[in-house]
Amino acid sequence: MKNPFSLFITIVSAILCFACEKPGQPHQPVGPQPKPDQGFVEAVPDTVTFTSADFIYYGDIAGESSSDDWVVKLYTDMEIDDFGNPIGPGTVTQLQLNAEFDENQKADPSKLKGLYREMMNSGNFAPGTFVSGYMVRLDLPGQTVEMGDGTFYADLSDSSTEMDYDLIDEGAVSISLNDDGTYTIEGVLVGKKYTKRYFKWTGDIEPRNYVPEETPNSTLKQDMTGLTFDQGQLQDKGDYFYRMDETYRCLLIYLGDESVDMSGSRPAGNGAVLRLEVLVPWETDIVKDGIPSGTYKMTDRNLDTSIDKDNIVPGAAIPGLPNVFAAWKVAGAWYYELEDGEWSQTYARIDEGEIVIDNHGDGSYTISYDLLDCQSVPKKIQGSTTLDELPVPGKPGQGNQDVVLEANTYAVDREKASFGSVEVSNLGEYICIAASPVEGVENFDAIFEQDEYFYVAISPLLNGKEFDLCTEKNLYTVMSTLDGAFLESVAPGMTQEIKAGKCVFRYQNEKAQVEIDLTLADGRRLAARMEAEEAGIVVNENIFAIGGDEKPVRTAFYLKEDGLTTLYLTPAGIQYFEDIPITTYYAYIILDDTQCNGRTLDVNDIVAVGYGDNFNEIYVDSREVTANGSLKVLSDPANIAHYQVSADITFGGTTLKLRYDGDAIDAGTKEVVKNEVVYNGTSYGITGVNLDLKPNPEGTCGVLIATDRGDVVRITLPLDFLDGNAHGFSQSPDLYMEYDGQMYSKANGYSGTITVGKDESTIKVDATNYDNLKIIYEGPYETVS
Amino acid sequence: MKDLMKQSVKYIIITILALVALQACEKPSVPQEPDTPQQEQPVVEPPICTYEYDGKEYPVYSVAFTADETQIFVKISPFKEDRPQTTYAVIGINASLEGIEIDVDKAWHNDDYYFIYEDPLMYYSQYRQLQSGKIMLKSLGEGDFQILADVVLPDGKTFRFEY
Asked: Is B33–A40 a contact, with Cβ atoms under 8 angstroms apart?
C-alpha cells in the first residue's frame, strides 16, 4: 500500500533543510568558563575521554547488502579481572553501528568513517545509524543474567564489575580519520536516563572480523551426469509433515555405491549416496506395493524453509532442508559422498528437478533422476539406477531405531521390558505421557507413586516433530526412575544427564505415541515406545514466531472498525486488550473486512502487518519498513469471533510466522473486571485491601488483600514500583507475594508479574505467579502508615 | 484508531521539528552542544518571566509563539533570540485543545501535547513521554498567549512555566 504521507514528509524535510544550517558532526563542549547571559549561567558538562577501544566487525547481519554491523567498545582506564571484566571505577560505552557496506565483508576501518544517528526504526539498517540500546536476558543454569546490548553507556562503581546501564537511543557519533592515521570517535548520546553523554576517543583501529564463515549447501564444482548406484533402501516416514489428514505418505529412498554400508537406518561406510524423499498416496504399503510408478517433481520450500500444506501432496518430491547437516536431522534430497561414515567435502543440497520411478512390480525398480543443486549457477545431478530390489529395513512406519521396540516397551542397553500402565494428560498446555512397568495403575498421578516410572512432557509446539533433546529450545521434560536408567530431569538447558537423545511425540485423533532414544551420560542407552488413547487432551497448535523462535499463541483479539479488521495475536495469556502493551511479544494484522476470506494475500496488498517486541523495545510495521511475504485470514461467517490466520512475512532479515485457528476476543468490548484471588484454581472474593506504607529500611511497601476465605495475600514491592506499571520478580528481590504459608519470589524459583497503581481513592492490583496464584482487584483501599 | 494515531505521531513530530527549526534555526532532534563562551561582558536585564526546572527557577529571555490550524507551540529560552539557545523548552498542543487544561496522563503524547526540554546536561526529546501533569495553552490574538505547563518529566523531575 502506498504511503499517503510520503509527500508530506518530503515537504517538511525540505523546510528543515532550508531553515537550518546542516548540522555538522558533534563537537566537544568548550569550557571551562561558564557562559554568562543576562543573569543566566549555563552548566558546562564533562567529556569522558576513553583510553582503550575494541572493534568487532560482524558484517552484513541484516542480509540486505545495505550496511555492515560493527560493535565498538570504549573503556576508560580500568583494571580487568580474571574473567576479562573491567573493574570500576570507570565508564564503558558500546556503540553498535550500521556502517558502510563492504562487498568483500572485510573488516576495513575506513568504512567506519562518518556520522551516525539513531535508527529511524528497528527494521531500518541504513548506513550512518546506530542501533538503540536494549537489555538481553541470558538464562544460565540456576540464574538469569540481564545485560545491555546495542548502544549503551555504563558506569562501574569503585571495585565493582556491575554495570549501571543507560540504554542509548538518541544522539550522534562521529568517526573521523586523523592526519597521522589514527581515528577519533566523539559524540553526544542520550538514553533512558536523559543525560547527555559527551565522549571522545583517539587511537588506532584494529578490528576483529567476526563474520561467520557460511557452510555452503553445495560443494559441487561440476555437473554429475550418468550417475548410477549399486544398491538402495526404502523407508516409510509416514505423515512426516504432520498434516494429520491421511492424504499422503512420505517415503525415503537411499541409493548408494557398492562400498556404502546400507545395513543400518542411515548409510555408512564409504562412497556416494543419493538421498530422495517422495510423497505417495497414504494407502501405499511399501512392503507389499513398493513405490508407485510415476514422476515426482521437487516442490517449493518457502524462505523460512517450511513447505506449504498445499504442496505436501502425492507426486511431490522434497527439496533438501537448507543448512542442516547433523546426520539424524538431514532432510529432503541430498547428494553426498561418505568417508568412513562421515560426509566428505563433496555434497549438494538438491533444490529442483524430478524423479521418475518405474516400479517393475517384481520388487525391482528403475529410478531416474534429473535434478539441480541449490547453487546460484546450479549443477546437474543426473542419471538412472536399476535395482533388483529396494530393501525395507525394520518395520515400516515405526522409525528405524537400532533397537526395534513394540508399543509400550522400553530397553535399557538393549534389554527389553514392558510398560504395564501408560497414561496421557495435560499439564497446563503441555502434553504429558507417563508409564510404569507396573500393571493396573489407575490414573496419571498414580504412575508417579510407583517405584519405576518414565515421563515425557512436551510443549504443543513439539507435537509431531522429531526433536534433539540436546539442542531443542521449546520446553520438554524427561524423567525416569526405571532401573538402570535414572534421569532426575532432562529439559532445555539441563541436558547434563544425557549425551544424546531424540524424541518424537505425537498426539492426534485422541491417541498419543512417543518414541524416544537416549544415550545417558554414562553411555548407557534408554529407548522407549509408548502409546495410549486419551480423549480430551488439548493441543494448542497456534504458532507465533519472530526470527524462528516459536511460541504458542495464547491470546487473540479482533477489532472491527470502519470496514477494517484488526487482529492481534500474542503468546501471552492475557484477558484484556489493554494489556497488549505489557506483553513480551505481540503481532497485528490490519486488513479490509472483505479480505478475511481465506485467500492468499501479498503483505503489500493489505493495510499493515507488524509486531512489537516490548522486551527489546522493537516495533516493526509494514507501513514503515520493507515487508515481503504472504498471509491468509479467514473469518468464520457463523462465528464472528473465530479466525484462521496463516502469515509468513519477512521484514528485512527478520521473519514473522503466525498460525492461528481459534476464537479471538473482541477488543472493542470492555471486560468487567472481577475482583478475585484465584488460588489453585479456586476463585475467592476480596473483602478489603490495605496499603501498608509504614517506613522500613528496605524502602518497600505492602499491599494486603483480605479474601472471603478468611486469610490475607500480602504483596511486597519497592515503593517506586507503586507506579501502575508491570514489574517482574526478576526486577527486584524485594518484589514478592506471600499466601497460605508460601512465599513466591524470584529467590524461591518463581516467576511473577505484579502491577500496582493507585490514586487517592482507588488501587488497582494485577498480580500473578504464573502458577497457582492470581489477584485482580480495582477498588477502594485504606492506607496504613 | 490507535494504529493510525501511532502512524500520525511520526508526522506530527516532523512538523514540530519544522516549526521549531523555523523559529530558532536549530535542530532539536539531536542534542545540542553548549556554545562557545562569548568574551563580552554580560549585561543583566530583567527577564520576561521565569520557569522552574527540577525545583530551581530560571529566567526566560526569549519567548516564541507559533500557531496554525492544527498545532500551537511556545518555545522559551534563558537566552535571547540572537544567542544560540542551547537551553530551551518547547511546549505544544493540538489546536483543537486550545484553552483546555490537558491532563497529560490521559492525553496522547505527540498528538494532544508536545514537550521538549534541553540544556547542556539533559535532553528530553519529543519522543519522551511525560509522567504526569497539566498543560494549558491559549492564543489571545496578535501573538499574545496564555500558558500553563506544570508537568513531571520522564525521570521524575518537575518543569513548570506559567505566562
From this structure: no
